[in-house]
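Incident log, support desk, overnight shift.

02:14 A customer reports that sequence design results differ from what the structure should imply. Their input is reproduced verbatim below. On-call engineer (initials T.W.) acknowledged and began investigating.
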């Protein structure tokens, strides 16, 4: 880690003025930055951000690809590490796709192109019956993937005439399901022939979370062969520590009219994030805790606990967890469309009614005690539910009333995104910092984190008695640097996790004074809430409008201040009494004393 040099504070911020990391003999060295970092005159220079967001959801066909790390929740695809055909006339295709280079909490919805893998497009509603013999491990494996619960019977003997009715069929219900495997509880069924009737689906998804003890996939062991017919997947192919999907597609021109679809999944990522508040480890998308985790992990900066000032990270984590009220939809009078929906269904059709149902809204269905969060708002008469979907089935022709909760809340700052390890650490940090419009400070040998929130000024104001030379004041940024309008993008779950514009943020007074729209654009790759994106854009705008910058050539009495501190300035000649500024830069002067760069601040 960087050595402690006097009280020099090296300051990271969400700005194009960000310093550059240089890795020398395993030591991260950082150059100091200036006023523009705090002023946020521009958001981070993020070359390739747009293509990165698009690229993270594309299957990669390459022999060499960088590892991916996921914080919070986002949609990703990954490298296709293997592909095999199987079955008569090669009607089955196996695709093995790695999503993350670490264990993840959950692999949720899987998409084939823009369709959920559970979409009716991939389902055959006519029942299929096959005959199977129970193996020595008390299992059978159905040829095609299925959905719902299959019916299993031991077929009866045929009737030999009107007098002899034959042996009746015996239903079997005591079995468990894993993929296409049915395992029977009764060991006496080994060697017995059974008939299985099921509803077929043309896609089978198998998920592996990347545990250190995960076993090789039995379907691939049984079915995968190389060109010479030898087994191509063995018990050694565990992909230990890699979260991945196995997608088994059954050939059907109606299901896949455009050929092999692009495959992607919604993943909840790193699950061993330490929380110094509770001294526990687990999954979280808390912005401050994700920032801390990156600093200490082997794929991050490899900081030790002595390199982290946890007082600041605890305070930032508490700020991130604060809940704020957000806008809800105005939908009223909507009812379900009369179709039957099974437990677990996510796409629900609605009819009648008026107004909007937004992504993030909490809704209830008449007669269902469960609350559901909408991940994709009402569009073309359909909403998508988050999580596990319906907890109670909806019967055909039920037309259940839908109620939108009048109040909804979200946490202040979250971190939901992914990066690959070919990116520079400084670029990763800059992008992650945007999730809390925050600053990372290296001060007195430890890192400190500052979210975008009002900080109480230091107890002792700065006065003329702290000056060793003349103060310098820049009252406002030049017109070239002024802004009154902020546009930008965030990652929207309701738009299939793609980069999406948030509503424009403007300051009406500044717009009127300037006489024209002066615009800047920001990109928020770790923000998945439109409301949060607008709050961050407003922070960016208001900070920019507080344009006064003061160069304060101080005596050694200023030695204890550091970037991030909020101070009050009392300068009688300027008429300033407890005027609030934030320290954005600190350096020792050649002739003794400390030079502070101060940027106007407000509650």
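02:41 Re-run completed on a clean worker. Output:
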């Amino acid at each position: 880690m960087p050595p402690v040099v006097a009280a020099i504070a090296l300051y990271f911020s969400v700005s194009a003025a960000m310093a550059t990391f240089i890795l020398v003999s395993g030591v991260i060295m950082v150059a100091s930055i200036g006023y523009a970092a705090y002023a946020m005159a521009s958001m981070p220079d993020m070359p390739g951000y747009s293509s990165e967001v698009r690229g993270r959801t594309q299957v990669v066909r390459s022999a060499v690809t960088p590892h991916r790390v996921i914080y919070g929740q986002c949609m990703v695809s990954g490298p296709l590490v293997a592909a095999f055909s199987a079955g008569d006339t090669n009607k089955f295709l196996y695709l093995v796709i790695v999503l993350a280079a670490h264990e993840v909490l959950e692999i949720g919805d899987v998409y084939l192109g823009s369709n959920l893998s559970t979409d009716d497009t991939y389902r055959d509603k006519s029942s299929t019956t096959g005959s199977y013999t129970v193996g020595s491990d008390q299992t059978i494996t159905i040829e095609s993937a299925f959905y719902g619960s299959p019916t299993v019977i031991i077929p009866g003997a045929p009737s030999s005439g009107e007098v002899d009715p034959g042996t009746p069929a015996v239903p079997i219900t005591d079995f468990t399901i894993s993929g296409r495997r049915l395992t029977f509880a009764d060991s006496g069924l080994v060697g017995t022939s059974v008939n299985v009737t099921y509803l077929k689906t043309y896609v089978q998804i198998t998920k592996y979370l990347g545990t250190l003890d995960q076993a090789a996939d039995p379907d691939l062991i049984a079915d995968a062969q190389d060109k010479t017919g030898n087994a191509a997947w063995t018990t050694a192919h565990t992909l230990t520590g890699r979260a991945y999907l196995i997608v088994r597609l059954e050939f059907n021109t109606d299901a896949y009219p455009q050929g092999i679809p692009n495959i992607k999944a919604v993943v909840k990522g790193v699950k061993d994030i330490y929380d110094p508040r509770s001294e526990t480890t687990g999954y979280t998308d808390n912005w401050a805790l994700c920032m801390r985790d990156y600093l200490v992990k082997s794929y991050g900066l490899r900081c030790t606990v002595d390199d982290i000032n946890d007082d600041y990270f605890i305070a930032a984590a508490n700020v991130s967890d604060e809940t704020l009220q957000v806008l809800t939809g105005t939908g009223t009078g909507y009812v379900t469309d009369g179709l039957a929906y099974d437990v677990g269904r996510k796409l629900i059709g609605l009819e009648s009614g008026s107004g909007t149902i937004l992504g993030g809204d909490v809704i209830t269905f008449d007669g269902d005690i469960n609350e559901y969060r909408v991940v994709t708002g009402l569009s073309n008469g359909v909403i998508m539910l988050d999580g596990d979907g319906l907890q109670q089935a909806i019967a055909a022709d039920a037309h259940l009333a839908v109620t939108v909760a009048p109040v909804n809340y979200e946490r202040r700052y979250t971190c939901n995104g992914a990066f690959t390890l070919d990116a520079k650490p400084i670029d990763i940090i800059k992008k992650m910092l945007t999730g809390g419009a925050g600053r990372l400070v290296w001060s007195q040998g430890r890192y400190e984190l500052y979210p975008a929130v009002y900080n109480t000024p230091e107890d002792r104001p700065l006065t003329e008695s702290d000056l060793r030379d003349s103060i310098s004041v820049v009252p406002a940024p030049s017109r070239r640097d002024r802004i009154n309008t902020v546009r930008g993008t965030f990652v929207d779950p309701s738009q299939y996790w793609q980069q999406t514009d948030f509503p424009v943020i403007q300051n009406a007074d500044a717009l009127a004074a300037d006489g024209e729209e002066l615009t800047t654009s920001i990109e928020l790759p770790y923000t998945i809430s439109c409301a949060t994106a607008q709050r961050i854009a407003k922070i960016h705008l208001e900070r920019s409008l507080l344009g006064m910058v003061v160069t304060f050539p101080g005596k050694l009495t200023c030695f204890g201040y550091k970037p991030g501190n909020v101070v009050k300035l009392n300068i009688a000649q300027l008429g300033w009494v407890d005027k609030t500024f934030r320290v954005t830069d600190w350096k020792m002067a050649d002739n003794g004393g400390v030079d502070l760069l101060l940027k106007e601040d407000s509650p």
